[in-house]
Amino acid sequence: MERPDLPLPQLYAFVVLAEELHFGRAAARLGIAQPPLSQQIRRLEDRVGHPLFARAVGRVALTPAGEKLLPAARGALSTLTDGLAAARAAGAGRAGTLRIGFAASLALTVLPGLLRTFREQYPEVQLHIQEMTTAPQVEALRERRLDVGLLREPDDDPDLSYRTVLTESFVAVLPAAHPLAGQETVEAGQLADSPFVLLPRHVGPQLHDQLVDLCVQAGFQPRIAQRAVEWQTVCALVEAGMGVSLAPSSIARLRLQGVVFRPLVGTDLRTRVVAGWHRDHASPLIERLLAVLGDLGHREFR
C-alpha cells in the first residue's frame, strides 16, 4: 500500500475552510486561532503543489485544485470516522463476526434461546452458525476455525476451555410397535434382546461410550445393527424397525410418526452439553457470548 502523503489534520482543516469559506469562522469551528489554521492550509498546499484557495480581502474561494481535492478529502475523513467507530465497536465486543458450532440436538434445547438473546443484545454482530458433531467441533476450535462450540461430552483438550450449560437424562427410542412402547418408563436391561441403532463412536466418543455403558451396567453388550451420524436419522431407522436406541432426553422433542420415547430409569447417568473455546482467545465477542450463556444459567433437561 502506498504511504498517504496528506496528514489528516490538514485535510480536516481544509474541509472546514472549504465549507465556511471564511478563515475566522473556520478557525472558530476548529477551536484554534487563525494563524495556525493558515499554516495548516499552507502546508497542505505545499504538499499538493498548487493553491487550494483563492484569497482576496474579505473573500475566500476554492481553486480548481481545491474543488478536485474536496470530495476526496471528505471521503477519506468519512472512511476514517467509520473505521474508527467499527474498530471501537469490535474492540468492545459490540460488532464483528462470531463463528459458532453446534451439535444438531442443541437446536432442540439451548441454541434458539442463546441466539435470540445474543442478537437482541448485540445486533451489530454477525453470527456464522455451523452444525457439526462433537469431534469435528473440537478440531475446529483447536485450529481456531470456530470461536465457540456448543458440543456434547467432548474429550479433554489442553488447548480448550469448557463450561457446562446443560445436563440431560436419557430416553429409550422405540418403534411404536415395540412391546415396551406401551410402558411409561423403560429400564436399559429390558432392551437386551433388541438390536441397536447408535452413533458412530468417532463423531462423539464420550457420548457413544456413555450409551454403551448404560447397557453394560444393565448386564449386556448392545448388539449394534445400524449406525447413523444424526439423531434424526437414528430415529428414522428406529421407526423403520431397524432397532432401538438410547438418546439424550431432548431428542424426544423430535416429532416422528412411528417412534416413541420413554424415560430411562434405573440409572443416574446424565449427559453434559458444554460451551467450548480456545484457551488463548483474545476476542471480546467470545466473552460476550459466554456472559449471555451465564445469564441463561445451567439447565437440567429431563
Automatic annotation (TrEMBL):
Record-given protein name: LysR family transcriptional regulator
- Gene3D superfamilies (alphabetical): Periplasmic binding protein-like II, Winged helix-like DNA-binding domain superfamily/Winged helix DNA-binding domain
Q: Which organism is it from?
A: Catenulispora yoronensis
Its domain of life? Bacteria
Query: What does the similarity note say?
Result: Belongs to the LysR transcriptional regulatory family.
Q: Residues in domain HTH lysR-type?
A: 6-63
What are the entry keywords?
DNA-binding, Transcription, Transcription regulation
* PANTHER family membership: HCA OPERON TRANSCRIPTIONAL ACTIVATOR HCAR, TRANSCRIPTIONAL DUAL REGULATOR HCAR-RELATED
Q: Does the keyword DNA-binding apply?
A: yes
| InterPro entries attached to this UniProt entry | LysR_HTH_N, LysR_subst-bd, WH-like_DNA-bd_sf, WH_DNA-bd_sf
| The UniProt record lists the keyword Isomerase | no
